[in-house]
Each structure stands twice: as C-alpha cells, then as structure tokens.
Design a protein that fits this description.
The chain is of the alpha/beta class and about 210 residues long. About 50% of the residues lie in helices and about 15% in strands. Strand 2 and strand 3 form a beta hairpin. Helix 2 crosses helix 6.
C-alpha cells in the first residue's frame, strides 16, 4: 500500500510536470514549473526552471542583437545621402572594400577600432595599388578573445595615431565611392560613434557582401 501511494505520487507529479513543461517550451516563455512532489522530483523541477531561465536569457540576448542589427541597417539606409549613385549600374561604380579590427565586439560599451584596411574596386577589378591601411591606438586594452581573432597585439598599436587622427584620411580615401564590407553594419557602428568627436559622417551608400552569399 505504501509503495502504491509513493508510486502514484511520483507518477502524478511527473505527469503534471510534463504537461507544464510542454507549454513552457512551446508557447509560454514566462511559465515555470511548480515545485511539487517528492524531494528528488523537486530537485529535477528546480533544475529545469534554471535551464529555462538560462534559455530565456540567451533568447533575449539574440533578440536584442537582431534588433540592433535591424536598427543599424535602417540607419545606414536613412543616412545614405548620395542617392544619385543608386541610379547607376553597379558595374559602373567605384567601391571601397574595407574592414576594421577592434578591441572587442561592443562599441557602445567602449570598444575601439585598432585597424582599418581598404582597397578600391572598379570595373570588376581590385586595385591593390589604391590601398589604405592604418593601425590605431585605441587608448584601451585589447581583449584576449579579440587578439585570438585578428592577431594584433597591444604592443603593435600603442603609440600609433588615434582614431580621431586616422579618420580624416580614411574619409578622403572613401570619398565618391560606395562602401563595401562583410557584416558592414558592425564596422559602420564604430564609425558612427565617432561622428561627434571627429565631425566626420560617412553618408555614401553601403553594401553588405553578406547579403549575397
């Protein structure tokens, strides 16, 4: 009799928990499992709730990043003042293909550009004789994770010109061309955050090569 009651308690608790778990995983992110049943089952339920919290935190992070990317691309569209370029065939345009390396991935939290590299592209050809390259002193440390990606060390940038000193010459290099980059909203965000201090605004059309992969 005691075993039957114990068995029924487990089965009832697991069945109820299973149903709530289905809802929690599918349609209701706010739902959490009720702590009920024997201690062992309560521990399992508590662990599931913790996993759900972690899942929701990751989902919120991803959603925030997606919204930020949408906002950045919308901003690029709104700010592209030289619309006359868009009326010309793509093959007739001059492009500045560029990339940046940074101290980290969060410009709004203080990360800075440490390198800008660019080449001119026109008539289907890459012009290696028209190149721009500059190492930049970020006036802050480079994260170890970033060094693993781009290989640029702190010693290589310390004492180099600052971004305020480099941007005028980069702007001049890009003038009259369409900016071209991969995941270019990331690079443009760093440039946009320097507008107030440098008074340099990149308004030319921007193309992201990632859309054509």
């Amino acid at each position: 009799m005691v075993l039957n009651r114990l068995f029924n308690t487990y089965v009832t608790g697991i069945a109820a928990t299973s149903e709530r778990l289905k809802v929690m995983l599918s349609s209701n992110r706010e739902l959490r499992l009720e702590l009920q049943g024997p201690p062992e089952l309560r521990e399992v339920i508590h662990a599931m709730n913790r996993l759900a919290d972690q899942r929701d935190h990751k989902i919120d992070e991803i959603e925030a990043k997606i919204k930020e990317q949408i906002s950045l691309y919308q901003s690029l569209c709104d700010r592209s003042a030289d619309a006359s370029l868009l009326d010309r065939p793509l093959a007739s345009l001059i492009y500045t293909a560029f990339d940046t390396e940074t101290t980290g991935l969060q410009p709004s939290h203080g990360d800075e550009i440490i390198q800008i590299g660019a080449l001119k592209v026109s008539n289907g050809s890459i012009h290696t004789d028209e190149a721009f390259e500059a190492l930049i002193d970020p006036r802050r440390s480079i994260s170890a994770e970033s060094i693993k990606i781009h290989g640029i060390t702190q010693a290589e940038v310390d004492g180099k010109p600052t971004i305020d000193q480099v941007l005028p010459s980069f702007y001049q290099f890009c003038e009259g061309s369409v900016l071209l980059g991969h995941n270019v909203a990331f690079d443009m965000r760093f440039l946009q955050l320097k507008e107030q201090s440098t008074h340099i605004v990149f308004k030319q059309p921007v193309i992201d090569s990632g859309f054509y992969n």
